[in-house]
Amino acid sequence: MSAIDGLPPLREVIAAHGLSAKKQLGQNFLLDLNLTAKIARQAGDLSACDVLEVGPGPGGLTRGLLAEGARRVLAVEKDARCLPALAEIGAAYPGRLEVINGDALEVDVLAHLTPPVRVVANLPYNVGTELLIRWMTPAQWPPFWESLTLMFQREVAERIVARPGSKAYGRLALMVQWRAEAKIVMTLPPEAFTPPPKVSSAVVHITRRDAPLYPADEKILARVTAAAFNQRRKMLRASLRGLAPDIEDRLLAAGLKPTARAEEIPLKGFCALARELAR
Ligand code: SAM
């Protein structure tokens, strides 16, 4: 029996249910329940929250979330082989775990969740960034979630929290930081996973803001940052030329140097330019 609950250790669960890891599903499992409980704690107090977990696999993080007191966990898993193992966890925590067998990119989870909701997941790398972008760009803000506590490849985590002037700074940092606060709360070596991936991983904790940090039209801001970072080595007056015939004047009106490069410009500057281009 494991230390955090009365269930068998994950190695036994995996062996009993024949859950050999499938590469095409991004299956790198966490088997250390002390580690998964620690990840669950990074999400804050879960006792009054529903937790959405994407990709529970054999349930290591699910067990961490439940042991740490999550009110309810809704887990969306694509691989039907994992369902019997997850059912055993559900039986140990009656009424607190709901499992949906489906693709997280397609399932409508909202009908299954009661606010407040926190998202906590060791995401499959192949869908992680796609889900993050969707969660950051809902039709209406604030979104259905209060916070996102997500495992990424370390390089992606660094792009999410990057500050101006760094190589990792770009569209992902701006998209997330416009509407949320993001920080790396844990880093994990490849050996923390079974099988180990090729690269290190990091957990990012993202807390939503009630409103964006600076006013701007979302679509215009996205267009500006896309153009600026698609040609990140060029000066803004060149990379943004397609956005307005008088782009130099617009840049100056927004308080930006036309000769500056995208990676020097803070979020505030991009928002000022988006507002200027909306006039
Ligand atoms: N959470 C488990 C853990 O920490 O050990 C497993 C993490 S593993 C990196 C990713 C999990 O996501 C796998 O169980 C995989 O089957 C599942 N998965 C992959 N693509 C998915 C998708 N589109 N929708 C839902 N689950 C998916």
TrEMBL record:
The record ties this protein, via InterPro entries, to:
KsgA/Erm, rRNA_Ade_diMease-like_C, rRNA_Ade_Mease_Trfase_CS, rRNA_Ade_methylase_Trfase_N, rRNA_adenine_dimethylase, SAM-dependent_MTases_sf
Per the record, the major location class is cytoplasm
Q: Which GO terms describe its molecular function?
A: 16S rRNA (adenine(1518)-N(6)/adenine(1519)-N(6))-dimethyltransferase activity
Name the UniProt key words of this record, in alphabetical order: Cytoplasm, Methyltransferase, RNA-binding, rRNA processing, S-adenosyl-L-methionine, Transferase
Reaction catalysed by this chain?
adenosine(1518)/adenosine(1519) in 16S rRNA + 4 S-adenosyl-L-methionine = N(6)-dimethyladenosine(1518)/N(6)-dimethyladenosine(1519) in 16S rRNA + 4 S-adenosyl-L-homocysteine + 4 H(+)
Family in the record = Belongs to the class I-like SAM-binding methyltransferase superfamily. rRNA adenine N(6)-methyltransferase family. RsmA subfamily.
In Swiss-Prot or TrEMBL terms, this protein is called: Ribosomal RNA small subunit methyltransferase A
- Organism this protein belongs to: Acidimangrovimonas pyrenivorans
